[in-house]
Amino acid sequence: MTGTARPDPHVRSGAGAARLVPGVSRLVIGTSLSGTILLALGAFWLSFTALRDLAVLAGIPETQAWVWPLIVDGVILEATISVVALRNQAASARRFAWLLLSAGAGVSVAANITHAVVAADARVPALIAALVACIPPLVLLAMTHLTVELLRNADTTSERDADPAATEQTAVALVATPARTGRAPAAIERAPRTRTGSDTRARAVALAADGVSQRQIAAELGVHPTTIGRWLSVPDQPAEGEAR
């Protein structure tokens, strides 16, 4: 069957293929990463000082109080590194990393709110103090998630830029479809029934045994009547594959 190759309408080749690969330019990624890192550092510092003060109020010596915010907010940082490192691994490992990240952020938010309620000025309502105090840990969590997404796009863009030939090859897809000419292909129309020489000879012998004339056998098998005569008169001779 003959066919024509046509491009897959859902796939583009050449320069259009690059637009199908998700990714962000390196300049945008670098600028965004710089901003998220600065915001994360600011949020971490505010949360660190609040948790350190809360540790002192809870009776931990000032010389050791700085360890408490490192433990709480350090879980957020370590879980973030794990999320990035495990993003291509098993789902169970990723879920555990996100669970640690969420738990660390939850403890940090609760501790910041507690510090605000305890240490806030009496003129400030407790609700307002709690809302202000919960912003730094939430920003830290949000910037962490945004950093992960930016790193994913950075990896995709790097792979695309490093191997443009592979992108070109994977983007071009040809789908073979039958030629639509309104009629059956000529190769099929002209295809005769073919048999091997031994099969044709055996068929001729069987028809002759049934009383069919040599002319009818020749017409049935598409060979000359004299060929049928030779096959029947010399049974042990190999059959001739062409009509005379």
Give a verbal description of the structure.
It comes from Microbacterium esteraromaticum. This is Phage excisionase # putative. It is a single chain. Strands 1-2 form a two-stranded antiparallel sheet. The protein has 11 helices and 2 strands; from the N terminus they run E-H-H-H-H-H-H-H-E-H-H-H-H. The protein is mostly helical and about 240 residues long. The model is unreliable at about 1-5, about 10-20, about 170-195 and about 240-244 (pLDDT under 50). Helix 2 (about 25-55) packs antiparallel against helix 6 (about 125-160). The chain has 2 domains: about 5-170, no CATH class; about 190-244.
List the helices and strands and how they pair.
Blueprint: E1 3-7, H1 15-20, H2 26-57, H3 62-65, H4 67-85, H5 91-119, H6 126-162, H7 164-171, E2 174-178, H8 186-189, H9 197-209, H10 214-221, H11 225-233
Antiparallel strand pairs: 1-2
In short:
Helix content is 69%, strand content 4%.
Q: Any key phrases for this structure?
A:
244 residues; 2 domains; mainly alpha; two-stranded antiparallel sheet; disordered C terminus; disordered N terminus; 2 strands; 11 helices
